[in-house]
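Subject: complex prediction, re-run

Hi both,

The earlier run crashed halfway through, so I resubmitted it with identical inputs.
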Amino acid sequence: MSDSFVIKNLNASIGDREILKDFSLTIPKGEVHAIMGPNGTGKSTLAKVLAGHPDYAVQSGEALLDGQELLGLEPDVIARAGLFLAFQYPSEIPGVTIANFIRAAIVARQAKGAPFDAKAYYAELYAKMDALKMDRTFTARFVNEGFSGGEKKRCEILQLMMLKPKYAVLDETDSGLDIDALRIVSEGVNRMRGPETGFLVITHYQRLLEYIVPDRVHIMWDGRIVHSGGKELALELEAKGYDWVKTELASA
Amino acid sequence: MAEIDESQTQREAIEVDRSKGDFKYEENYAFDAGVGLSPSVVDYISKVKGEEPWILEFRQKALKTFESLPMPTHWATTDLENIHFDKIRYYLSKGQKPVRTWEEVPDDVKATFERLGIPESERKFLAGVEAQFDSEAVYSRMKEELEKQGVLFCGPTDGLRDHPEIFRRWFGKVIPVGDNKFAALNSAVFSGGSFIYIPKGVKVAQPLQAYFRINAENFGQFERTLIIADEGAEVTYMEGCTAPKFETATLHSAVVELVALKGAKIQYITVQNWSANVFNLVTKRGVAEEGAEVRWIDCNIGSRLTMKYPGVVLRGKGARGEVLSIALANDGQHQDTGAKMIHAADDTTSNIIAKSISVGTGRSTYRGLVHIPKTLKNCRNNTECDALLINEHSRTDTYPAISVRGQKNSVQHEASVSKVSAEQIFYMMQRGLSEGEAMSLAVNGFVNDLVKEFPMEYSVELKRLIELQMEGSVG
Ligand SMILES: Nc1ncnc2c1ncn2[C@@H]1O[C@H](COP(=O)(O)OP(=O)(O)OP(=O)(O)O)[C@@H](O)[C@H]1O
Ligand SMILES: [Mg+2]
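This time it finished cleanly. Structure:
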């Protein structure tokens, strides 16, 4: 259990609306799991609850990241513990350049007063931007301000690559990406795949999963996982839609 | 009121060290005007300084003006009523003349300034430094080559005594005694500050710096500054201010007059970090003659209440005036700041960019005054005020009074209010930043384009001050 991300019987709500209902899922380190599900079933809610968003109330459950309980911790503590969330709708931070933002995030992970190797930092930043085919002038642009939808998503993946979390949740990273960008961003994620990193990929489209081939695919419905399978499950969904899941649920 | 006491006790005691400016040393003053304000307090100050009769007369008249003027509470905050003039100490000094080598500075005063990074910064990038401790300068030094070029850098007492032909002409002329109640108060009890003269055509490449330090409780600091840049001269002056966190209110009420003669340039930079019980009520104004430029860079961080509206009177054809200001009002603080641009000649241009940040119950107010009479032509003003609110309790108000007449003059005015949203903070925290770090990053982002205009050393200091404030504002 100390090398997996275990979510167990998680119940969470916003206001008086229950959204996650006994949600359980285990992602062993090194694996890529995908979650698919209709609009409004609680996928983004799951991501934000795990990341410690203050708007959501957790009634019960566990979220153990390599054995460490995340629920109840501050968002920054969760982040530094090793959970990264690529947002479905990333915020804009006016006046703060991408370079300074990522730098601040890295410094926040260092011991207080530890020296920062600016030269190595920029070398790495540029290399990763090159890999994502981001123009280097982006380092001087303000975080997400005036970015196109696709540029925002690329910027999320750049941060992911720079911060090297233990687990990453990608919330609809594919939405807004053009065909080339989808391939480039997926390559970036694939390059990070390895025994040290686990991924939870939230998506509506099987196309992303052609590039980032998942170990497991889960179907989320009304706040919980109702069906799990291999990568072929995504193909099945694409072909048949969600109606059969509903039927299956009704007959269960 | 205390007698003039020549004996001086030297004791050492160190209190609190919570943040950079928040510490104080034992008070041991040779000269103490006692508590409260009266004609005899004014006499005392003038006598200690050995001033000429005309200065004493000037002071006594100013005291009468001060007493006759009402508090400006009809338009400003009623918090002003909490200043108890009868409980303030108006003059405190250890009795020494400002010395020219750091070694000569008394140990406790030296320790104070060393903790604030002076004269470290002098060695690095300054052309001259003056350090004022309560009422008087304790240290004053300028690079030799500037002295040879005829640059004068001293306090008002020395300036008015040794160079009356230069300073007396302008003293109290840019800001008349009766300009406002606090200018009158300063005129009555002023002590310390800088008197600077830059001769014709001399361009001082490195900044001159003054550092103001309040060390005593219930104290009022009333420095007086007059900077004259003769024709074609250029100078940058920077002031920094701190005080420890006292339990009771302390008053800082300066008057700063700038005179930029034909084609001269003066840049005046303030980075103040007053603690939360200082009333900071300062009058600053410059005159720009033909083709001259006066630029105020004003950063107001801390204090209980700051009221400050640097102004420029554009008196000569083609003169330029600029105010770039940043105000940060933290919990319980009120920054009432702004700018005044008085166009009094053709082809004059002025630019105001004011950014304010309100945190928690902090409140920031922008007051502007732009005046272009209809007899003038080709005058331009640009005013931009942006407010950032860190949470829903904070407050911002804008009062941009712009009176522009005449066909051939133009003004441009923009104002914005933005908020740091909970989503933005969450986004930044998700990247590993603490709440305080996230907020200071957002604030630094907000002031970023303005800070780029500042000299490097000051932008670094400002950034750090903002971080300290934001760290302190979260639980
Ligand atoms: N602040 C809120 N107040 C009320 N309801 C909310 C709030 N945030 C989310 N919800 C509701 O919670 C449900 C789950 O939303 P969530 O964003 O998690 O869905 P999702 O599965 O990510 O959908 P999509 O596929 O459209 O991104 C939705 O019905 C949504 O309207
Ligand atoms: Mg969603």
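Residues 149-163 of chain A form the longest helix (15 residues).

- K.
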